[in-house]
Specification:
Strand content: 5-15%
Structural class: alpha+beta
Helix content: 40-55%
Radius of gyration: 21 Å
CATH architecture of the domain at 7-259 and 486-502: Alpha-Beta Complex
CATH superfamily of the domain at 7-259 and 486-502: Amidase signature (AS) domain
Strand order of the largest sheet: 6-8-7-12-13-11-9-10
Largest sheet: 8 strands, mixed
Order of helices and strands: HHEHEHEEEHEHEEHHEHEHHHEHHHEEHH
Distance between the termini: 11 Å
Length: 503
């Protein structure tokens, strides 16, 4: 890798500043990014589609302006419509589909000066907390390639952690930015519901539980990107008002003495290791040292009903998505074109009654109200992002018995058995992500800060959440944490391995 060897030493704003001063050109930055994709991606499978020549043409058409002038960037291959380039959503059914125009989200990315040159790996339709689709195969974690980078923004996280790009697009419907951020040692920020435009023409993806943003190595890149993306989207019924100030500029201000609640209790039944709890309490002491008040609390929800309600909504959304895509593709998906979990969710969605969907919305809205009431007494909630270390590749796959049952149900969709399968699947899936989905349900902003590393050297993220619209508080706290526990220079194992191989 000879083009601009210092490339990985800068965040996005740092690279843009070099371009603006004439130290390096956008073409040189793109070449540096391409070299790193070509070097690291064979081991990581983070990037599944590239359009290098189109990116080079973008640069050749004239000066690239914007706050991220000339910075190489990757889109997640889900809910990010880029005109003329495939949007597979990780599915064999839609692997060749190409949108004919940019979404508002992609348009704002481009206007910020980013040079988009590829798409990152995703699980099928973003339905898994690991990135292991049948279509693209598994993405690998740069810290340990035998492990998953998480999902569903796993490809983006792996690409940023390895240094291919300083930041990449992600979306989050149950933790899909925060999960891979925690597993890959990155800063992952989920904005409030309605803060950013949606990635596609569907403005309420998963009943508006999905939000769009980026995964970054620095807090300031994330804040600056929210300045780029924030603001109402034409036609959206849930858009928050445009912010009155700059998120990037707010990083220079103190949040004051925050009332922080610390909870080690998962919202959904799942394993939480003693090591992760230990680091949570270390983070609590760190926040006290920073001048904040930290109070241990126990915060619970009706986890059984909420898990079933979330899955009910998801099933209805997937059934609707496949119906819409059937019209787009011109044919129904074949059995061989969908992964079995997707097919079962679609089957459940078609079997549901309108009253089931209405019940699910009511349950989720009650959970959201419960969370909002809690934040009347606290500024921030601190909890783990994940409960255990990143799973090994294939660890979360269905076992033979589960796979056989679901295969039968795809051919003989018996309602009582489908209901049982949904309940079993809901509880099992939420056990893998016991801390993250609640903030998609409530619509509140949440972030994962890569404060620690475990005994095996793997990153451990700590999660912080605030009330709707309080992104500024989280960014200011994140800036304090980043200064107290710098993480930018921590490099994953693959960088050392590849460099030693090159030598």
């Amino acid at each position: 890798m000879r083009t601009f060897p210092e490339y990985e030493s800068f965040d996005g704003l740092g690279l843009a500043a070099l371009v603006q001063r004439g130290v390096v050109s956008p073409a040189e930055l793109l070449e540096a990014a391409i070299e790193r994709v070509d070097t690291y991606n064979p081991k990581l499978n983070a990037v599944i589609h590239t359009f290098y020549e189109q990116a080079k043409q973008t640069i050749s058409h004239g000066p690239v302006e914007g706050i991220f002038q000339g910075v190489p960037f990757l889109l997640k291959d889900l809910l990010a419509d880029y005109a003329g380039e495939p949007l597979s959503s990780g599915s064999r059914f839609t692997h060749s589909w190409k949108p004919d125009k940019d979404s508002e989200l992609v348009s704002r990315f481009k206007k910020s000066g980013l040079i988009i040159f590829g798409k990152t790996n995703v699980p099928e339709f973003g339905l898994s907390p690991v990135t292991e689709s049948v279509l693209w195969g598994p993405a690998h974690n740069p810290w340990d390639i035998s492990r998953s980078p998480g999902g569903s923004s796993g490809g983006s996280a792996a690409a940023v952690a390895a240094g291919m790009v300083p930041m990449a697009h992600g979306n989050d419907g149950g933790g899909s930015i925060r999960i891979p951020a925690s597993y890959c040692g990155l800063f992952g920020f989920k904005p409030s519901r309605g803060r950013n435009p949606s990635g596609s023409s569907i403005m309420r993806t998963w009943e508006a539980m999905v939000v769009e943003h980026v995964l970054t190595r620095s807090v300031r890149d994330s804040a600056a990107m929210l300045d780029v993306l924030a603001g109402p989207e034409i036609g959206s019924s849930i858009a928050l008002p445009a912010p009155t100030g700059s998120y990037r500029e707010c990083l220079n201000k103190s949040p004051g003495k925050l009332q922080i609640a610390l909870s080690e209790q998962p919202f959904f039944a799942g394993t939480v290791s003693e090591e992760y709890i230990h680091h949570l309490h270390k983070a609590g002491l760190l926040c006290q040292d920073l001048g904040h008040v930290v109070e241990p609390v126990t915060l619970t929800i009706n986890s059984h009903d909420v898990a079933i309600a979330y899955t009910t909504v998801l099933a209805g959304e997937i059934a609707a998505t496949l119906k819409r895509l059937t019209e787009t593709m011109g044919h129904k998906p074949k059995h061989s074109e969908l992964e079995i979990q997707t097919e079962i969710l679609s089957c459940i969605g078609h079997k549901m009654k309108a009253s089931d969907f209405a019940w699910a919305r009511e349950v989720l809205e009650n959970a959201a109200r419960h969370m909002a009431e809690f934040f009347q007494d606290y500024d921030v909630l601190m909890i783990p992002t994940m409960g255990v270390e990143p799973p090994r590749i294939g660890q979360l796959k269905l076992d033979m018995f589960e796979n056989a049952i679901l295969e039968v149900l795809t051919h003989v969709p018996l309602s009582p058995l489908i209901k049982k399968a949904m309940e079993y699947g809901s509880i099992k899936n939420f056990a893998n992500i016991p801390f993250t989905p609640i903030f998609n349900i409530s619509g509140q902003p949440a972030m994962s800060a890569p404060l620690y590393q475990g005994k095996q050297g793997l990153p451990i993220g700590i999660q912080f959440a605030a009330k709707i619209g309080a992104e500024e508080i989280l960014f200011q706290l994140a800036a304090q944490l980043e200064k107290a526990m710098p993480w930018f220079e921590r490099r994953p194992l693959i960088n050392e391995t590849i460099q030693s191989e090159v030598k």
